[in-house]
Design goal:
3 strands; three-stranded antiparallel sheet
Length: 76
């Protein structure tokens, strides 16, 4: 008999979430998205979501840090 009490071996749908600092993460479908985050792209398997993040999150610095540098925060 199959054990139905665990999710072992079950592939869940995932989606990509991004916050106001342009930081990305994967999020399991069916879980409420935390405050300050929004979904982007389409739901898929975890590998597809990670590939989306790799393609779109090209600058790991938070948006506020990028903005500070662009507005003259670089004193070097």
């Amino acid at each position: 008999m199959e054990n139905t009490d665990t999710d072992e071996g079950v592939e869940h749908a995932w989606f990509v979430v991004v916050n106001d600092e342009d930081q990305y993460s994967v999020w399991a479908d069916g879980r409420p998205v935390p405050d300050g985050w929004r979904t982007v792209g389409e739901a898929g398997d975890r590998a597809a979501c990670l590939a989306y993040i790799e393609e779109h999150w090209t600058d790991m610095r938070p948006k506020s840090a990028r903005g500070a540098l662009a507005s003259g925060g670089n004193h070097g």
